[in-house]
């Protein structure tokens, strides 16, 4: 027999024993009396008992179904109390109140002799024969229905009382246990959270606010609490995961400070700042990178899903890629491009690229909102050699003057020096320590003949093969040397010295985002656009490197 000492000591056990001693002779007498009855009476009783039991169970089930949506609202939240934190008690009271009403109601159930008698009593039909047959059935149905209802009420009252007490006991035991579990779940949830940054206001947080997918209500504290340890119920009735471990990261999230939509709710974020002058090719670089990267990764592993957010930004980039013509990006706003990575059964990774307009840097407006520089993991500086008059003149001399229609009008040195100054000021550079954030200096439009002959892959290979030992048998050293010499030749030595004085990890990359002169209707033919980001993620020892290197191929 169940040990009740935890719920009242031996006293409860003794009371139960006394009840058992008192009721045992009565039960034996009832069984003996039933055995003396005629077989037809016994069979009739069994049938009535069966219908009574069905009615009792259906009354209970109907009470549950009717009230299972009744939850207790939290006074300081737009969520409901969890089942074991108050809502269960509310439901229990309503369930058994309604179940008793259904128990005594002969009208609602079709699986009842009393219900049959009720329906025959109100039945009307023009056929006299049918009505005569119904009248013959009606009287026995009334008599049997009376006994059925008597059994249903007597047995049902005892059954509902017993189940109500059992329900109360379960809630009484599980409620304090649930309260004890809350801090452990909160700790586990907090440990699983990842610091994130808003793409609009640059606020840093590890718990965003979550938008209910059904009613779009925003919930501020969707965590393990009295509203639910694993799942919580919105006021609209929708259930939401309330911790990282139960899938809360799949819910759309917003910044808790400015309510901007976030690309992901709990993704490991890797941030890259993209810097360059106007018409230097930043937009083309982004268009080429997103097209190659997304296409190659999706085809590489079907378990991996990669998608860009905001979607309309990426739609615009894809249109640029296919049309062969770039569009002028915003000159006042920092645009944020998020590449979300999700592998089956693993967490999310978010590659975020901030496109910083030249005017924002040069007119010092970036000083007013520079917080995103504080969580930078990598920097890409786009250099347009065609911005230098001598390079344009050389293009005209060799007969490719048509390729120099679009070029940056910014002073490249001024732009680089201003960015380096702002970055070092914002990140709190120590005079004795360089910044270890990787910096990729991308020399764009390397498909142009006069640029390609200076830093193109054939030139790099030829220089390296002529004396590999001079470059430590590393072709990337030869590439960096040639690119550095070329930029010094263009008059950027002061800007490069500024970068060298602040940053300790610098690499140079010849890249062509478009692959040809801008021409409407001619799709991009890029090369080298993935390599800078692959190097940055590798230098930063980011887990994202495993995905970026998948997308990188040998390009010339």
- The CATH H-level superfamily of the largest domain is P-loop containing nucleotide triphosphate hydrolases
> What would you call the shape?
elongated
Reported CATH architecture of the largest domain: 3-Layer(aba) Sandwich
Tell me the β content.
5-15%
Number of strands: 14
State the CATH class of the largest domain. Answer: Alpha Beta
Distance between the termini: 82 Å
Please bin the fraction of helical residues.
40-55%
How many separate domains make up the residues? 3
CATH topology-level name of the largest domain: Rossmann fold
Indicate the structural class.
Answer: alpha/beta
Average pLDDT, rounded to a whole number, is: 84
Low-confidence stretches: 1-9
* Rg, alpha carbons: 38 Å
* H/E topology pattern: HHHHHEEEEEEEEHEHEEHEHHEHHHHEHH
Explain what you see.
The chain has 556 residues and is an alpha/beta fold. It folds into three domains: 142 residues, no CATH class; 59 residues, no CATH class; 284 residues, P-loop containing nucleotide triphosphate hydrolases (Rossmann fold). Strands 9-10-11-8-12-13-14 form a seven-stranded mixed β-sheet, sandwiched between helices. A hairpin with a 6-residue loop joins β1 and β2. α3 packs antiparallel against α5 and α4 crosses α5. The radius of gyration is 38 Å and the shape is elongated. 36% of the residues are buried.
């Amino acid at each position: 027999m169940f040990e009740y000492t935890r719920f009242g000591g031996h006293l409860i056990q003794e009371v139960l024993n006394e009840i058992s001693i008192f009721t045992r002779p009565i039960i034996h007498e009832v069984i003996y009396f039933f055995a003396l009855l005629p077989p037809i009476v016994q069979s009739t009783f069994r049938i009535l008992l069966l219908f009574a039991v069905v009615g009792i169970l259906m009354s209970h089930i109907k009470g549950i179904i009717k009230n299972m949506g009744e939850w207790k609202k939290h006074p300081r939240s737009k969520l409901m109390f969890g089942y074991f934190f108050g809502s269960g008690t509310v439901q229990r009271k309503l369930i058994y109140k309604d179940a008793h009403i259904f128990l005594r109601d002969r009208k609602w159930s079709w699986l009842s002799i009393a219900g049959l008698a009720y329906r025959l009593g109100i039945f009307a039909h023009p056929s006299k024969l049918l009505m005569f047959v119904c009248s013959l059935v009606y009287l026995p149905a009334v008599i049997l229905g009376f006994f059925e209802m008597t059994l249903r009420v007597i047995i049902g009252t005892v059954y509902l009382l017993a189940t109500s007490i059992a329900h109360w006991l379960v809630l009484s035991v599980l409620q304090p246990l649930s309260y004890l579990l809350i801090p452990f779940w909160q700790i586990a949830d907090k440990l699983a959270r990842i610091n994130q940054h808003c793409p609009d206001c640059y606020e840093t947080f590890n718990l965003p606010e979550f938008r209910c997918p059904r009613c779009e209500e925003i919930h501020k504290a969707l965590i393990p609490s009295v509203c639910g340890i694993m799942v919580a119920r919105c006021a609209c009735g929708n259930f939401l995961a309330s911790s990282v471990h139960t899938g809360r990261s799949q819910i759309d999230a917003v910044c808790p400070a400015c309510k901007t939509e976030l690309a992901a709710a709990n993704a490991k974020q890797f941030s890259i700042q993209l810097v360059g002058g106007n018409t230097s090719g930043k937009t083309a670089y982004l268009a080429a990178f997103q097209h190659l990267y997304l296409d190659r990764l999706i085809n590489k592993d079907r378990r991996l899903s990669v998608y860009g957010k905001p979607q309309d930004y990426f739609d615009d980039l894809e249109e640029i890629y296919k049309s062969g013509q770039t569009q002028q990006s915003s000159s006042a706003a920092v645009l944020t491009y998020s590449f979300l990575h999700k592998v089956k059964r693993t967490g999310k990774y978010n590659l975020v690229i901030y496109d910083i307009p030249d005017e924002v840097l040069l007119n010092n407006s970036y000083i007013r909102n520079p917080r995103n520089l504080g969580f930078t993991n990598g920097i890409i500086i786009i250099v347009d050699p065609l911005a230098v008059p001598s390079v344009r003149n050389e293009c005209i001399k060799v007969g490719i003057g048509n390729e120099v229609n679009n070029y940056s009008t910014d002073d490249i040195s001024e732009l680089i020096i201003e960015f380096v100054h702002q970055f070092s000021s914002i990140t709190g550079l120590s005079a004795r320590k360089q910044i270890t954030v990787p910096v990729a200096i991308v020399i764009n439009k390397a498909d142009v003949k006069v640029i390609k002959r200076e830093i193109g892959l054939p030139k790099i290979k030829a220089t390296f093969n002529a004396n590999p030992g001079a470059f430590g048998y590393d072709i990337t050293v030869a590439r960096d040397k040639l690119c550095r010499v070329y930029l010094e030749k263009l008059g950027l030595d002061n800007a490069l010295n500024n970068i060298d004085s602040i940053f300790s990890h610098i690499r140079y990359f010849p890249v062509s985002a478009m692959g040809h002169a801008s021409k409407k209707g001619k799709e991009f033919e890029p090369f080298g656009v993935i390599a800078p980001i692959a190097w940055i993620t590798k230098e930063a020892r980011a887990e994202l490197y495993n995905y970026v290197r998948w997308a990188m191929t040998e390009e010339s």
